[in-house]
Each structure stands twice: as C-alpha cells, then as structure tokens.
DNA sequence: TTAATTGGTTTTATATTATAAAACTGCGTT
DNA sequence: AACGCAGTTTTATAATATAAAACCAATTAA
C-alpha cells in the first residue's frame, strides 16, 4: 500500500472546505477527521507554508489558499486544445466524410493548428501552420465575433481588408455587420470570400473562462451548399464544438458574484 | 517545528511542474528532489488518489490533476468583493474625506453593496441595497462599458431611458457614444445626469477572469468639479480599483492559448 | 475581579510509518 | 537474447508523525 498517511490526511483536509463552510476552525477539522488538534495544527501549518491554506487572522480560522488557484489555472492552461479536440474532429470527419479544420487566432490572423482529412475530395488547400485572414474566412469570423469591443477594436485597428475574390468584404462597416450576424446565428460562414467555388462554415470553441479560444470548420464546394445543407452542417459543428468546449472546462462552475 | 516532511515534499512536488515541463517522469522528480524513486512513487500515488496528480498512461509520465482546478475555482468563488474591497475603500475615503461607493450590476441596474462615509458633507443620497439605472450614473456606465457586445445588447434590449434631470442621456445612440468614451478614458462620469448639482466619477473593478464585476465611485458637488479635479479623482480611483482587482486575482496568470 | 470556557500553539516521548535498498516487471533497443 | 531504462513492489529499520499534556490568550460567566 503506497498511500502516505500524512499526505493523505493533508489532502482530505483540503476537501473539507465547501460552499457552506469556506472557513474552518482547527477543532472542527480535528473532530471531523478524528485526529488530535495538535496533529491537525501541524498539517495546517505545513499546507499554509506553501499557501495551500491561509489563516484569517481576525478569527483564527483557516481557509483554502491562493496557491490552489494558481496551480489550478496552470492545469487548465496545459490542457491543450489540439489533443482534446482530436477525437471529436475525427468522429465528425468520419460521420460526414469531410475534412475538418481546427484554427486559433494569433494576432490578426487565424492559424490552422490541426486538420482531419475526410474521404471526400479535398477542395481546400490547407496545411497545419497556415495562416488565414479573419475578414474573409468563416473561421476568422468565428474567432473574432465574440471578442470584447476592446479586443476587436485592437484587431481591426489598421486592418487591411485585402481582397481575395470578388466576394471578399473589404471595409469595416460591412465586416461589423457580418460579425453581428455571426453572433445572432451562432455560426460563421464565408460565401466564396476566400476562394472561388468554396464555402466554409465554422463555429467557435470556448474554454473554462467562456472565452472563444478556437474554431472548427467544414468546407464545401459551393454547388453543394443550400439553406438546408448549411443548417445541417452548422448543427453538427455546434454539437462537436460544445463537446470539446465542455471537455476544456466550459461550464465547470463559473465563478462570479 | 511543525512542518510535516512528507506533506512538505508532496507539495514541493506539485510546484515542480511548470510551463516548460508540464509532464515529468518519476526519475526526473526523484533526482530534483533528492529522494529515492520509490519514495517519490509513494508520494505521487497518494496525490493521484485524490486527483491532485494524473498519470499519462501513454508514456507513464505524471502531470497536475483536475482537482487543483476544482479547488482553485472554489477559492476564487469564495473571495467576496465586499470584504476584499473594504480596507481599500476606507483608505481612499480617509485620504480624500469623501464618501466612496461600491456597486455591482444586477440585471439592468446597479446595486450599491457597500459604502464608506467620508468626513465631508454628504451630498448624495445612497443606501446599501439601493438600485440605480445604468444610463444616468457613472457607476452604471463603468459597469456596462466593458461588457461584450452580446451582453451589452441584452442589457440595452427594451431599455427605458428614463430622464432624471435635464442632462440625462435618453437614447441608445448617445449612450453608446458615451460608453466608447468610458472605454477610451478608463473611467466613467455623470455630469448631473442623475441628480442636479452632483457629479460622480467611477472606475471598474475586475476579477481573475478579467471581467468587470463591480465599480467604485466618488461623488462631488458640481461646483468643485473641473478638469484638474476630475483627473486627480480618476487617478486615485483607478489606483484603488487596481489594488482591489489584483487582490481578487486579476492578472494572476491568465490562461489562454 | 476572578474563574471558567474555548480555541490555538508548543513541547515531548514513543509507537507508527515514511524511507531507501534491493529485487522485480515490462518495454524498447541493440 | 541481452542490455538498459523506467515504473512498481516488498521489506527492514531509522526517522518522524502522532497524541498527550501543558501553555497561552481571548472571551464569557460568576
């Protein structure tokens, strides 16, 4: 049996704190743990030494410390999207036969960080690491549409609306209207704005902080696109994105007032 | 010396994981801690038992576990603004002699959740629990100016711009322009828009998630207000707000890609 | 004012248990 | 097939975690 008793006890103490009792007295802990109060005292002082526990000097009570937040944040930081998303993207690709892309925002551009090839003919040139402008791509729109006004303003400052096809949006006013629409619909699409003959649909992925941190997309030759197809694809993408988001901590106990 | 060695070692192991090495082998840990690998093994298994550590089954390496995130979130959740803000508000009130208010957003209105009376004559009727519209108050503007477009839209949907004084802003267009200005300046003010003869200056408080969760404000009789005074007050409020925000976890290692 | 209660801290002896050595398993490489 | 490497299990013993008792400080009761 490799369980170390004192460590085990220290960790169980951390678990005692809950919604209803965020501060505990030594004697409370000692009676609940069936340990002598001097033993609990030593355990607490050790935990306190590394800030896993803090003491309220006003009343002597103990509570969980900031170190837990710091380390906890680190865990989430290191849950990388790519590995979490992989199996979901494969599933969706399998189901539809299409190629699925995973894209993040870097500065003012999207960057493809993963793709899963489908059985259907490849219609869009892509490569992991490739960059794509936000103003003319479904993924770009999905990535920026949910940013705060400040962040969006920073991205659009001195933005160059380079024209890729005759359909490309080339001014801020139209682009903002387009983003409004993305927010309303919950998905983004480009209508041959990036490559003639190709249309792309994309939805955002959020993490524990509720911020959009990535987008997934599916591309279609334009002749296969119609109202019904768009709706179907958007629904499937949304479902997949929701599953990924959840696995990244989205909806895990929002912390607000 | 009340430090318990095995607990101390377990906690130090948790601290070994960092940005560059989020997964570690037992032998790595053992050499860095100057402990025998079987000792480290026991410690890890104990930590793993409560999910403070997880093992990557593909390569046998260990990494921080989800429990840390769970407990960390709990710490933040239980840090309540009021108690954290109190001493900062008292300090500012003492320094300036003015009454300081602490306000949060509830639905489409601000709610006063705390106030610290200054020595100067009271000029604004206020009471903890009192509600105040967002469109005609400095605190209201500070609370909503940094919301996402979606949240702001939800607040302003069917919003009634009730006129409180001849100076009250009574339409969305002007209000949005005003909010733009708040974002640009970093502080909000009302210019007798809520009560004739009184002007108020307010700045937002953010928490670990970087969202605005409250605002603090200082009120002045209008005859004491001028460019220089506004600037001075705004600076003091900003400094206080920054201190509170920091204590609430703002800037403690943002987690994004 | 003093006694009693409650809760946290410190000290200490001893019985428990954390530790490291050594042996074992399983995997990949040569 | 043999070697090296990493994780795991077992075991004896030396180290230390534990609880008892005493102490301190603050609050409440008499």
Detailed description of the structure:
The structure is a homodimer of 257-residue chains. By secondary structure, the first copy, chain A, is of the alpha+beta class. The first copy, chain A, folds into two domains: 5-75, Arc Repressor Mutant, subunit A; 79-247, GAF domain (Beta-Lactamase). Helices cover 43% and strands 18% of the residues of chain A. Chain A has helices at 5-16, 26-33, 37-49, 66-77, 81-96, 138-144, 149-156, 172-185, 227-247; strands at residues 53-55, 62-64, 100-106, 109-116, 131-133, 188-191, 198-206, 212-221. In chain A, strands 5-4-3-8-7-6 form a six-stranded antiparallel beta sheet. Chain A has a two-stranded antiparallel sheet with strand order 1-2. In chain A, strand 3 and strand 4 (109-116) form a beta hairpin. Chain A is elongated, with a radius of gyration of 25 Å. The relative contact order of chain A is 0.11. At the A-B interface, helix 1, helix 3 and helix 4 of A face helix 1, helix 3 and helix 4 of B. Chain A binds a DNA duplex (30 and 30 nucleotides) through helix 3.
Q: Outline of this structure?
A:
Two copies of one chain form a homodimer. With 257 residues, the first copy, chain A, is of the alpha+beta class. Helices cover 43% and strands 18% of the residues of chain A.
Keywords for this structure?
homodimer, 257 residues, alpha+beta, Arc Repressor Mutant, subunit A, Beta-Lactamase, 2 domains, 6-stranded antiparallel β-sheet, two-stranded antiparallel ribbon, 8 strands, DNA-binding
CATH topology of the largest domain in chain A: Beta-Lactamase
Unreliable spans of chain A: none
Which strand-content bin applies to the residues of chain A?
A: 15-25%
Q: From N to C, what is the helix and strand string of chain A? A: HHHEEHHEEEHHHEEEH
The helical percent of chain A reads 40-55%
Report the strand count of chain A.
8
* Assembly classification: homodimer
CATH class of the largest domain in chain A: Alpha Beta
From the spread of the alpha carbons, the general shape of chain A counts as elongated
Distance between the termini of chain A: 43 Å
- Number of self-contained structural domains of chain A: 2
The largest contact between protein chains, plus residue counts on each side, is:
A-B, 60 and 60 residues
- Overall pLDDT confidence of chain A: 86
CATH superfamily of the largest domain in chain A: GAF domain
Using the 3D structure, state the CATH architecture of the largest domain in chain A. 2-Layer Sandwich
In order across it, which strands form the biggest sheet of chain A? 5-4-3-8-7-6
Q: Outline the biggest β-sheet of chain A.
A: 6 strands, antiparallel
Radius of gyration of chain A, in Å, reads: 25 Å
Structural class based on helices, strands and sheet pairing of chain A? alpha+beta
């Amino acid at each position: 049996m490799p369980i170390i008793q004192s460590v085990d006890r220290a960790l169980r103490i951390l678990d005692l704190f809950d919604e209803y009792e965020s501060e505990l007295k030594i004697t409370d802990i000692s009676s609940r743990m069936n340990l002598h109060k001097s033993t609990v005292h030593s355990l607490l002082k050790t935990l306190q030494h590394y800030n896993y526990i803090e003491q309220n000097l006003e009343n002597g009570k103990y509570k969980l410390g900031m170190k837990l937040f710091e380390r906890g944040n680190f865990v989430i930081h290191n849950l990388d999207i790519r590995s979490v998303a992989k199996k979901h993207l494969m599933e969706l690709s399998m189901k539809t036969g299409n190629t699925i892309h995973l894209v993040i925002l870097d500065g003012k551009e999207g960057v493809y960080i993963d793709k899963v090839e489908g059985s259907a003919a490849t219609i869009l040139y892509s490569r992991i690491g490739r960059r794509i402008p936000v103003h003319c791509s479904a993924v770009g729109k999905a990535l920026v549409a949910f940013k705060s006004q400040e962040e969006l303003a920073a991205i659009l400052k001195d933005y160059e609306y380079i024209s890729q096809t005759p359909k490309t949006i080339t001014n801020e006013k139209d682009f903002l209207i387009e983003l409004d629409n993305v927010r309303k619909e919950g998905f983004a699409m480009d209508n041959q704005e990036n490559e003639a003959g190709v249309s792309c649909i994309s939805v955002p992925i959020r993490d524990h902080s509720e911020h959009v941190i990535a987008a997934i997309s599916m591309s279609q030759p334009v002749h296969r696109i119609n109202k019904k197809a768009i709706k179907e694809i958007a629904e499937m993408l949304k479902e997949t994105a929701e599953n990924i988001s959840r696995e990244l901590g989205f909806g895990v106990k929002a912390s607000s007032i």
